[in-house]
Amino acid sequence: MNRRSFLVRTGAAAATVAGWPANSFALNATSSELRLTERSIEARIPLTYTGLSFELAQLSEPGFFSAASTGLIAHCRTLSANGVLRLGGNSSEFCWFQADSSTTEPKLHVPSGDLNANWMPHRLFRITPQAVDNLAGFLKATGWRIIYGINFGNNTPERAAAEAVYVASKFRDRLEYFQIGNEPDLYRTASNGTRPPGWDFDDYAREWAGLARAILAKVPNAKFAGPDVAGSSDWVTRFGERMTVELPGKIVTVTGHYYASGPPNDPRVTIEHLLRGNPKIADDMKRIEAVAQPRGIVYRMTEGNSCYRGGKPGMSDAFASALWAGDYMLELASFGCSGVNFHGGRGSFLSASLGDHTPGMDVAKKPQTMRAGYYTPIRVEPGTPVKAMPIFYGMMMANQLAGGRVMDADLKADGVNATAYAARIGKTIKVAIFNKDAAQPLDLKIQSPQRIRSANAWRLQAPALDATEGVTLAGAEVDSQAHWSPRAAERIEANGASARIHVPAASGVLVLLEA
What we know:
Elements lengths: L15 E2 L2 E2 L8 E9 L11 E6 L14 H10 L4 E5 L6 E3 L27 E3 L1 H14 L2 E6 L6 H15 L3 E6 L20 H18 L5 E6 L3 H14 L4 E9 L11 H6 L3 H13 L5 E8 L13 H16 L5 E4 L3 H7 L24 E2 L7 E2 L1 H10 L5 E8 L5 E8 L2 E8 L6 E6 L6 E8 L10 E2 L16 E2 L1 E3 L2 E6 L3 E8 L1
Helix pairs in contact: 2-3, 3-4, 5-7, 8-10
């Protein structure tokens, strides 16, 4: 089982979809009902819910995040007008900030033992003030905010504070908070080797607080999040309980990672497994929320994707990842999560972050150029156009509910692998439905708490679950300039407070109910 799975599962033209006219009902489809009700306690999906995660080492190429990166900027803006960029990853533990010409390179930490069994970078990455300046221009151009990761695995309080001072001065109110360290619950493992085998949470908490206090001495208004773990929900709750006492008012978020499956060369990692889901997510989120809410903090999933160690070709870069991502994002939102950042970026940096291992290439059916970037939402490889990948479409669909008030969505699907979520935005109820079943379609009756004046639908679809091309939302692809707008907003049957829609197997749909 995946070592990281502590939050697992977790007036328009009519269109013809998968061979069925928009409003027809298939004879072999399962008749199901979705009942929507208002929650007694208001909970909203933040406008900043949708995010991307990149390796911090990407800043060693100062021009990657800059106002001149027009293709990446355009894709970020299409994904969300209020997104959050997170920089961290394995490589963050080997990054160093050269504050000025007198700042010398630190000593490279090389773990003992067989380096072939170690999945961490084996080189240093220099970050210059120019890279931070350029990143500030990138954030201004996108309108996004940032979560900035500070090296904890191989750093000193003095270096951490100097970097934080410069970052805070450049990002100002676009800085969400600092994170210190990446997946510290794995530091003691042979695959990481950043700390000795006996090192544990108490050691982590003591060292982490030392770096945080050094930063606060130089940046008094700094805010923090943590522990940014790979797989220990216990560390998440313990961090929230302990650090909000030790540093009152300075901890705003607890964070963790989630990879649904992996590694990519494990034959058990399949599309069927990815889409199966796991009910354990509810218990884990309830535990975390029980710690977060009374302390006035929130939870955010700051790094994750469909398959750890770079993703699996034919799954992570295929339509199945779009259905999985949209479902996962909204499931977390239904339990109070404040945001999701899916990991990606340039393949060379993802590969470097894994100690230059590329397990996805072992299962590729043809020569690959992306190396370790199969799961990236936005392809950003040198010499190729910036491109929205299939997972991008699932994220874009889920983001349509951002800013809305969460509603309860009780779906009775009679054995079909399907999920549904809803949020109210003004007089409009937006309903996201994911039919992850490879074979069974749904004939769905939606029961609303309000009279429906009109009902329209945007389809999320592709030729097949393993299709890497031809993915559309509302009949439209994201073009090479990152332009997208609904092309097929399909009117569906509505009568009184109910609406009906056919949801083909292996597809999603966003239903918009207007009062």
